[in-house]
UniProtKB/TrEMBL annotation:
<dbReference type="GO" id="GO:0003677">
    <property type="term" value="F:DNA binding"/>
</dbReference>
<dbReference type="InterPro" id="IPR004509">
    <property type="entry name" value="Competence_ComEA_HhH"/>
</dbReference>
<feature type="signal peptide">
    <location>
        <begin position="1"/>
        <end position="28"/>
    </location>
</feature>
<keyword id="KW-0732">Signal</keyword>
<dbReference type="GO" id="GO:0015628">
    <property type="term" value="P:protein secretion by the type II secretion system"/>
</dbReference>
<dbReference type="GO" id="GO:0015627">
    <property type="term" value="C:type II protein secretion system complex"/>
</dbReference>
<dbReference type="Pfam" id="PF12836">
    <property type="entry name" value="HHH_3"/>
</dbReference>
<keyword id="KW-0238">DNA-binding</keyword>
<protein>
    <submittedName>
        <fullName>ComEA family DNA-binding protein</fullName>
    </submittedName>
</protein>
<dbReference type="InterPro" id="IPR010994">
    <property type="entry name" value="RuvA_2-like"/>
</dbReference>
<dbReference type="InterPro" id="IPR051675">
    <property type="entry name" value="Endo/Exo/Phosphatase_dom_1"/>
</dbReference>
Amino acid sequence: MKHFKTLLVASLLGACACAASFHSSATAIEAQQASLSASQQTSDKINLNTADVNTLMSLPGVGKSKAEAIVAYRTQFGQFKTINDITLVKGIGDKLLAKFSDQISVN
C-alpha cells in the first residue's frame, strides 16, 4: 500500500508538471501567432514605394492611368514618405485616399 501511495503521488506530480509545461508551450504559441498576425496585417498592405502598376490597380478607384501616374511620380520624385503624399499625384485627392488609406503603406 505504501508503494501505491508513493506511485500515486509521483504520478500526480508528473501530471502537474506536464500540465504546466503544456500551458507554457500553449502561451508561447499564442504569442507567436499574435506576432505573426500583426506582421501579416502590415505585409498585406500595398507598399506605395514598391508596388507595380498591376498591384496599384487593385486599390479601389485606381485604374491603369492613376496607377501609372503613381509609378511615374515615384520615379520622378522618389519614395513617398507618408501615405498622405499620394495626394501629390495628379488625380488622387483626399476622397480617393480615404477609400484605400487602410490598404496602403510606405515602408
